[in-house]
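Record minuted for completeness.

…
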Amino acid sequence: MTTTIAADAVRTALPRRGVSCTQLNNGLWRITRDSGQVLGYVEHIENGALPRFQAKRLASTGRSFVAAGEFWSFDDAVDCLRFS
């Protein structure tokens, strides 16, 4: 059921100029600029009936991820990556 909630939250996400969201699997999206630059990833977090989304960036070592924030909406998670 949570996958459906996450999918519904993303389906209603606001379109953004210059940013693309590519779904990689049921709970993970890659966020890129139109130029192809990867800004980070947004992951759906299981949290009962409420959707939660974690914005992540690739660490400078390129071997792990660093959490940029946790949000109630997919839009807010994308904006975190877009504006930071």
